[in-house]
Amino acid sequence: MHSATISLKPISNYPSESLFSPPKLHNSHPRLNFYAEPTKRMALFGGLGFKISAIGNSNASVDDNGGTEFQTLREYMGKGGGNVSDELVVLYSHLEYACKRIAALVASPFNSTLGKSFSASAGSTERDKPKPLDIVANEIILSSLKNSRKVAVMASEEDDGPVWLADDGPFVVVLDPLDGSRNIDASIPTGSIFGIYKRLQELDHLPVEEKAMLNSLQSGTKLVASCYVLYSSATIMCTTFGSGTHAFTLDHSTGDFILTHPNIIIPPRGQIYSVNDARYFDWPEGLRRYIDTVRQGKGKYPKKYSARYICSLVADFHRTLLYGGIAMNPRDHLRLVYEANPLSFLAEQAGGKGSDGKLRILSLQPVKLHQRLPLFLGSPDDIEELQSYGDVQQKINPGYEV
């Protein structure tokens, strides 16, 4: 992490731009449209009219007036960050727009009404059954991907099967539109998860349903980009294009995602494990021994580990990415296509690992669109130590709700 000393200077004027203005794109020259006139806007502190000045080693440059000029996501991509293609720049501009709309929806005083308007059938234990908020987020993203004209296939956790959007779209997008939404009434952080592949042109001759499914079941090793968006005290888009993991924070005063965490490197070890400890007695022996060992400070890292569990995958993973340790669900619960692959790609690009308890996540070939598996994400040394205990996958469901 870069360090910087921050000072605040009041300013009278700052750029105003609608948060919900849809991207204005010229298909012939998308990069030229974004970057012919590089932006000079300043990141604002909490939207309160303060200019941030930085002294020390940071990712920002200091302008002639002593203020700090931060780089937006569009500028980062437009200047060739991660060898990003023009087509991917266009796609991300539409993802930005969708996620800003979802962030506003999640923060709305009416979101609890949306969440409670769903009534499950009597006696239902399907906690993952879609709520209206999930569906609204899914529709927002679908609309944005259609408008981008850059996506051939969208496969979502909320849909039974993939949706074919455009024959000439160069990308395939798999996603969980609103992870953690079942806890949204309590204002617990939520998130969106995206994985992006190239369309398999060799399948273009196949029927639509078949080529849509096969494009969506690509191995994680073929990901060209992935990201999650965390909706919390800040809205953060953490992304990789295959050359490091970088996080951008939404500046609500300008509507821009600002580069705040360049080149994230997860610590080799952490001191935090994230799992539902209430299920301890249902765990396999290896996992119980591992947790017992590290929280007593008797593991390879001679410090006592602490438990931190939010029960929101994006939030637990985000903390793990920054602080180190392990975020895990040992049951066959999380989805390989929509959650495990995109987050494992981000973890590996930050120097971490994603595992099912035995194998590297990205090495697994999906065979079903909604395929579930155990998931362990985090610091490389912690993941290796966990796997050394052998029996860490919980293969039985003792009857509690999922």
Write the layout of secondary structure elements.
Blueprint: E1 5-10, H1 30-35, E2 50-55, E3 61-62, E4 68-69, H2 73-78, H3 86-107, H4 111-116, H5 132-148, E5 151-156, E6 163-164, E7 171-179, E8 190-198, H6 208-216, E9 225-231, E10 235-240, E11 245-251, E12 256-261, E13 272-274, H7 285-295, E14 306-307, H8 313-323, E15 326-335, H9 336-349, E16 353-355, E17 372-378, H10 380-387
Parallel strand pairs: 5-7, 13-14, 13-15
Antiparallel strand pairs: 1-2, 3-4, 5-6, 7-8, 8-9, 9-10, 10-11, 11-12, 15-17, 16-17
Helix pairs in contact: 3-5
Brief summary of the model shown:
Its EC number is 3.1.3.11. With 402 residues, the chain is α+β, with helices and mostly antiparallel strands. It contains 10 helices and 17 strands.
Q: What fraction of residues sit in β-strands?
A: 15-25%
Number-wise, the strands total: 17
CATH superfamily of the largest domain: Fructose-1,6-Bisphosphatase, subunit A, domain 1
In percent, how helical is the residue content? 25-40%
Under the CATH scheme, which architecture of the largest domain would be assigned? 2-Layer Sandwich
Describe the structure.
The protein is α+β, with helices and mostly antiparallel strands and 402 residues long. It folds into 3 domains: 5-71, no CATH class; 86-261, Fructose-1,6-Bisphosphatase, subunit A, domain 1 (Fructose-1,6-Bisphosphatase, Chain A, domain 1), CATH 3.30.540; 272-387, 3-Layer(aba) Sandwich (D-Maltodextrin-Binding Protein, domain 2). It contains 10 helices and 17 strands. Strands 6-5-7-8-9-10-11-12 form an 8-stranded mixed sheet, with helices on both faces. Strands 14-13-15-17-16 form a 5-stranded mixed sheet, with helices on both faces. A two-stranded antiparallel sheet has the order 1-2. Helix 3 packs antiparallel against helix 5.
